[in-house]
Structures are given as structure tokens and as C-alpha cells.
Amino acid sequence: MPESVSVDALIARRKPGHSLEAPFYTSQSVFDLDMMAIFGRHWIYVAVEPEIPEPGDCVTVNIGRASVIILRDDDLQVRAFHNVCRHRGARLTPEGASTVGNLVCPYHQWTYGLDGRLLFAEHMGREFDTSCHGLKPVHVRSVGGLLFVCLAKEPPSDIDALAAAIEPYIAPHDLRHCKVAHSEDLIELGNWKLTMENNRECYHCVGNHPELTVPLFEYGFGFSPDSLDDNRRVHAERYDALLTESCQRWEGMGLPSREIDRLTDVTGFRTQRLPIDGSGESQTKDTRVASRKILGSLSERSLGGLSFWTQPNSWHHFMSDHIVTFSVLPLSPDRTLLRTRWLVHKDAVEGVDYDLKALTEVWNATNRQDGDLVAIAQAGAASPAYEPGPYSPHTEGLVEKFCAWYIDRLSAHQGVAAPVEVAA
Ligand code: 3BY
Ligand code: FES
Ligand code: FE
């Protein structure tokens, strides 16, 4: 017989080094808590500046029941507002991209400026004060062109520390002068934490990602040489030497490259520039650049891939010729949206400077494979025989860091969630 347990008790008894108990992946009660305590209180990566280059360009993103309009105003500043009309609450813009002069509500045409002020509302009478009915602002922050929003009244202030640390790493790739060459939404049939856990390890890569050149991540994801057989140890040691040597070379060129691990911060993150299959240029099938126009101030092609991972919902790879960014948005306890964007130099011409298939095929294939893995993990977590299993100390250290961060962030919200059922 299943027994009823409080979510507080599940948080308190979480066994470090092990996957989470089933309700964390399956229950509506934990999902609601996640949307409140994690997605409602932290900096959530949602979009890139090149999606809104001109005044009036908007991108609308749903985060649980919230919907946020991120736009470029007349002064070229990025602003964000709750997508809720101050009349009777209708959505002003549909999900995705749009371009507006003003924000006009489709319902009764209340009209808001790009600064959120209510400019016009017909038939409201003389007493009606438009100045009290502006759109509700949402905190938004551009970190080198990556757009993060925070739904909390008081957002975590350590986004400043994240920005100060990461901006010098990503600035040379000049994301603001890129364009989105392709965007892909994939709905994974699993809890958002399974999507994130899967991203934080490459234990599964050898067996599942033929397109993702395996040496790309295998050792960069924390394999410890002690855990490998002789043959693989030689590879790992060679990779370590390559990593040290490449890092020195890149740093010598003025490209910050060495690892920063701040995954335990409230706005947790990690970064590192990693070699791509020896002297490979980019995350493509043949490891050569997919776009001929090199980004920003970069002067050569073989610069590896600068990876940037954030808690709770994103990761990004910056190469010499393109950038790939991933945003994870929970839809329900067992459905998650993975939004992937590929960016190239804004002047790169499709078919001339880059081929869309060559640009997107590795991560499209890899995402689909990861989506299938998330789905089988979800199905397993939902079955009566599931119990938390041990993470590999050699390859799943970052999965543990994700779960430890998550549990720590939830523990600030005792007594909020409804009890859940667990197998006795
Ligand atoms: O993109 C990443 O960072 C991870 C590592 C390898 C597979 N993956 C989804
Ligand atoms: Fe927006 Fe009426 S609900 S104008
Ligand atoms: Fe994967």
C-alpha cells in the first residue's frame, strides 16, 4: 500500500549521491512547489537578444502559469512584463515572436507603450486613472546577450557575480551581433529535473550519441582516470594534457578558458572551454566550422567549445563560428520543453556561408536521443519498483551537484507543498 508522506520529509531524507525519490519526478504537488520555489524565485534563462533586435520586437515565453513578454523598447533597452492585461487579464501576445508598435490587448484594445504604461483605454470614464494600470514589470537581465528573467519580487542578487565572471568568457563570441539561424522546440516526456540531470553527465554519451563526437565531452565531464581501464586511462591522461595545453594557449590569446565552478551559488553556474576532438573547430559532424563567418573578435577557428551551464534550467556552447543555447521549461510533472537555438554571425548567409543541416544535425540528433533517455527514465521513476539509485562518483558528480542545489533551494520552503504518495 502506498503511504502518504510530506514533501518536507522527502527533502529532509534525501540520500546524497542518489537519484531523487519518485514523487520528485512524478507528483503534481512537487511540480507546483518547483514552479513556485525554483522557477518563481530564480533567474531563468529564456531567450537571446538577437531575437529582439529592433524597438517593438517581442518574444513571449511561458513559465508554468506565468507568461512573460520580453521586448526591445524605443530606447533599445530590453524590458520584460507579465503578459496579463490590466483590464480583465487577457494575454496580450501569443507565445513566441511578434513585433508591435504598442502592445494592444486583443480583447478590448487597451493599449500599452513599450515601457509598459497604459496609453489608451476606451469607455473607462473620466475618473479612470491610466497611470495605475500599467503592465506589471518582470526582472530581466542580459548576460552578454543571454536573457534571464526572474518572476520574484526580489531576485537573487548574485546574478551580478555570475555576469562579472562569465561576461569576459563569452564577450569574444559577441552574441549580440549574431542572428538566430534556427530554433527548435522539443517536448521531452519526462520531468524537467531528468532533462537537467541528463545534461549534467556524459556517462550516457558513448552508448547513445554517435553524432556527438565522443571525445568532445567524455573526459570534460569529470571522468576520473582512476576509474578507467588501462586503455581508456591513456586517453584520459592524453585528454587532460590537451586540456591543460589548450587552456594555456587560449588564455595566452586573451580568451578566458579555465574552469569556474560556482554551482552551489543561488544563481549557480559553471563554465569551461573544452577542446573538440583534438584540434577540431566546432560541434559539427566533421568537427569543422559550420559557418564561414567567424564570430566577434575571434581570430581563428580552433578554439574548442566554451560551455556555460546554469542552475536551474540552461546550458550553452560557444564555438568560433556558432553558438548553441538550450532553455529548459517545465510543462507538467512528466513533460518538459527543451528549446534549442543556433546562432551564427548576423551577416552570415544561409547556403553561402553556412549550411543549416551541417549547423544543426549534431545537436538535433543528440537532443532527440537525450529526449528518449529522459522518457525511459521517467517511465522507470513512475513504476512501483523504482527506488533512488547511486550516482557514479567518477562520472555523475555534476548530477549530484544539481540535485544537491535543488534540494537546498527547496528546503527554504517548508510546509508549502501538499503531501505525496510513496510506495511503502
Ligand atoms: O550539452 C551538454 O552539455 C551535455 C553533455 C553531453 C550531452 N549533453 C546534453
Ligand atoms: Fe485586455 Fe479587456 S482584457 S482590454
Ligand atoms: Fe546526452
TrEMBL record:
Q: In terms of domain of life, where is this protein from? A: Bacteria
**PROSITE patterns cross-referenced by the UniProt entry:** RIESKE (PS51296)
Record carries keyword Oxidoreductase: yes
Q: Which cofactor does it need?
A: Fe cation
Q: What is this protein called?
A: Aromatic ring-hydroxylating dioxygenase subunit alpha
Keywords, in A-Z order: 2Fe-2S, Dioxygenase, Iron, Iron-sulfur, Metal-binding, Oxidoreductase
Domain named Rieske is located at 43-149
Species the sequence originates in: Azospirillum cavernae
InterPro entries named in the record: Rieske_2Fe-2S, Rieske_2Fe-2S_sf, Ring_hydroxy_dOase_asu_C_dom, Rng_hydr_dOase-A
Task: List GO molecular-function terms, semicolon-separated.
Answer: 2 iron, 2 sulfur cluster binding; dioxygenase activity; iron ion binding
